[in-house]
Amino acid sequence: MAQSVLGSLTLCYQLLWNRRRELAGIRLLAYEDGSQADGGHLLRSLTEMWTAESPTLLVAARSPRLLMGMLEQADGDSPMVEVPVDWLGDEALFEAARAARGRGAILIAASGPGPRRPDFPGRSSPRLMQLEVSHAAAALQTVLRARDADPRHPAQRAAAQAQLAASPIEPEQIVVGAASMALVEHALDQRAAWAVAGWPIEDVLHRNKGQPLPPTRRAVIRTMQALESEQSLDQLELQFGQEPALAYRLLLHLNSASLGLRRRITSLRHGVMMLGYRTLDAWLAEQLPHTSDDRNLQPANATMVLRALLAAELMEAGVEEELRREVYLCGLFAQLDLVMDEPMRSALGRLALPEALVEAVLRGSGPYASVLQVAQALGQDNPAVVRATRARFDMSAEEINRSLLRTLAFAHT
């Protein structure tokens, strides 16, 4: 991909989650850093990079000029393109959108604070609604009042239904800005939204407040199946690293006095090698009664895993594989204080972790700090934070954007 494209953009991303709590797609936000970014070239390059196995991609150009370049190139093979309805007052942009639809492009109409119909013809597809604070509060009040309604009283039930009907969220929308699980559940489960952008991880983890987060039953069973089918060491390491709670429990067990290993275990791979398949399978079976079936944990865990993968991808080419594994754990454990519901220093202190990992997570310093902080910044829709972070560590936009797109193209749950 030409430097004139990726070197002139600040990219951010949001994961899109559907009603089944599965990855519905990725919303890629593209901000211009200068006047050299070619929207058409960006769209062509993304089309070439994405495969049939890649997640659905929605590209949101954050300037009319960049969007115009994308619309001039968009066709049925392109990623979905987000089109702010307010920008369609520009006649040239409107005609470009109409022409793109004629070539088979999927255009998602992005409305402002409330749902609005697109002013150009389009096939049936989700529309994007940005929830502002007032609308988010209104939706939350709807949920709370509906839950408080006494089903034995017809008047209260009717009032609750009326309030639900007044919600700003319509079916098949992509909802941006749902900052709490109450809003997410309202959008996905009660209003049949197509997806929500992002996931309120802190709110999900706080629901378990007072005790460490358990691994999910899904993750434990998948790992047991991987052991049973005698998958490779690389695959098993990946399975144990699919949830921070499971990875943490394994490392804690490996370094416990009861196990009595002579050497401290600092990586999942080393632990799998030391215990062997049969012992690991028995240990996982012991974990099963203490797992969780909360489906809302799946997007939270997947988000933390993607951050870990991105941090490892951001490492310089040619770095030793062992260091990449350390960086992966660094990204996976970046919110370990929330996962374990205790101060980060205490949670990290129980494990025998590399000092560089501890420095990055606990103090924001050391050789892994740059890739961890950039990976964290890219998951926010805040280009100023991304630009400031890459400037702090003298990392180029080209380098960061390439790593981000490579990671997103292979994202899955």
Care to describe what's here?
With 413 residues, this protein is of the alpha/beta class. It folds into 4 domains: 120 residues, no CATH class; 66 residues, no CATH class; 74 residues, no CATH class; 111 residues, no CATH class. 52% of the residues lie in helices and 11% in strands. It is built from 21 helices and 8 strands. The longest helix has 17 residues.
Number of domains: 4
Strand order of the largest sheet: 1-2-3-4-5-6-7-8
What count of helical segments does DSSP give? Answer: 21
Q: Which sequence of SSEs, written as H and E, runs from N to C?
A: HEEHEHEHEEHHEHEHHHHHHHHHHHHHH
Give me the Rg, rounded: 23 Å
**Amino- and carboxy-terminal Cα gap:** 27 Å
Which residues sit in consecutive blocks of at least 5 with pLDDT less than 50? 113-124, 132-149
Main sheet specs: 8 strands, mixed, barrel
Q: What is the count of β-strands? A: 8
Strand-residue fraction? Answer: 5-15%
User: Looking at the structure, what is the overall shape?
Assistant: globular
Average of the residue pLDDT scores: 86
Helical proportion?
40-55%
Structural category is alpha/beta
Describe how the helices and strands are arranged.
Elements: H1 3-6, E1 9-17, E2 23-32, H2 39-49, E3 57-61, H3 64-73, E4 80-84, H4 91-102, E5 107-111, E6 127-130, H5 133-148, H6 154-165, E7 173-176, H7 181-190, E8 195-197, H8 201-206, H9 217-228, H10 233-240, H11 244-254, H12 268-275, H13 277-287, H14 297-313, H15 321-332, H16 336-340, H17 344-349, H18 355-363, H19 369-378, H20 383-392, H21 397-409
Parallel strand pairs: 2-3, 3-4, 4-5, 5-6, 6-7, 7-8
Antiparallel strand pairs: 1-2, 1-8
